[in-house]
Amino acid sequence: GKRMIECVDAALLHVPLLNKVYSATKQVNEALTSGNKTAFKTVVLVEFPRAGSYSIGFLTSDQHDEVQRKTNEKVVAVFVPTTPNPTAGFLIIVPEDKVIKLEMSVAEGIKYVVSLGAITPEFAPSGGPRKS
After folding, report:
1. Distance between CA atoms of 79 and 71, rounded to whole angstroms?
2. Tally: H helices and E strands in the chain
3. CA 2 from chain center: how many Å?
4. Helix ranges (DSSP H) in the chain
């Protein structure tokens, strides 16, 4: 149980690049997990900081009454983390149709960001079985 998790935690923290990724992933998860549900729902691609360049982001919510009304668009909130410290980042409000949803899990998305894109999740198109 808990003891086992602590041992794995300790072991992972001794591998140089992995420990950075792992402890950051843990920090982000703890920072953004309220109770048992994570603040993030989906990993997305958004054109940020400018059109034509994409950033990995996390969909945080999609109900913004005032913003919705004043932009006259269906908008969503996306958190774009900074590398290599993903607890900092930008909250951007973008039209829903400008957001590309990815199939990677939130944990995979965080690892991807923290590792500067070096750790990429495996992708099997068409929803086929994924090796883990």
Report:
1. 19
2. 4, 7
3. 25
4. 2-12, 16-32, 65-71, 106-114
Task: Work out whether the CA dihedral 51, 57, 62, 63 comes out positive or negative.
Answer: negative
Measured CA distances, 68 to 12, 62, 74 (Å): 43, 9, 6
**H or E, element range at 26:** helix 16-32
Q: What does the alpha-carbon distance between residue 114 and residue 24 come to, in Å, rounded to a whole number?
A: 7
Is residue 73 packed enough to be buried (19+ CB in 10 Å), middle (13-18) or exposed (0-12)? middle
Comparing 106 with 57, which gets the higher pLDDT? 57
Residue 11, pLDDT above cutoff 90: no
d(CA 64, CA 76): 7
Strand partners, 78: 59, 92
Strand (E) or helix (H) holding 18: helix 16-32
For 76-130, how does the pLDDT look when each residue is reduced to its tens digit (9 = 90+)? 999 998 877 777 889 999 999 999 999 998 888 888 888 888 888 888 776 555 5
